[in-house]
Amino acid sequence: MSKKPAFAVGDSTEMLCSVCDLEQPHKVLTVTKLGVITKAACETCETASTFTRGVKTSVAMGSGKSASPYDRNRKYRKGQAMTHDKFGRGEVTAVIEPHKIDVIFGDRVRRLIHSQE
Ligand SMILES: [Zn+2]
Q: Are residues 46 and 79 located together in one domain of the fold?
């Protein structure tokens, strides 16, 4: 196996952005002594991602609307942003019924339940 490339703060590298849902250039924000990226920000949406041992562990939203994780017990309104375990970042496009919402993730709309309490 060849050596892994070592990165330095300020480097740019392509990686998957979970918000853009695309491979995007990311600016390296923090690295370990060995040059392993621990934090990098998407240059397109400014979302910063943190990594532990090369695995993405969390995503912090950039300058966009704040989005909290999808919670079926919560009541959503049109225009609210959320993050979903599988689908990533989404925004409510319509409230269909008292317990159903349409949410757009990337370019796909999914129907989710809400307000279950
Ligand atoms: Zn992005």
A: no
The total number of structural domains that make up the chain:
2
Instruction: Judge whether 31 lies within some domain.
Output: yes
CA of 27 to the centre of ligand 1 (A): 11
Q: Ligand 1 mean position to 25 CA, how many Å?
A: 9
pLDDT at residue 4 is higher than 70: no
Tell me, what's the pLDDT at 46? Answer: 87
- As a whole number of angstroms, the distance between CA 105 and CA 10 comes to 30
Residue 4 lies in a domain: no
Please give the distance, rounded to the nearest whole angstrom, from the Cα atom of residue 19 to the centre of ligand 1: 5
Q: What spacing in Å lies between the alpha carbon of 34 and ligand 1's midpoint?
A: 26
Residue 58 is predicted with a pLDDT of 57
Its domain, for residue 93, covers: 68-113
- C-alpha to C-alpha distances, 49 to 33, 74, 83, 86, 110, nearest whole angstrom: 19, 26, 14, 16, 25
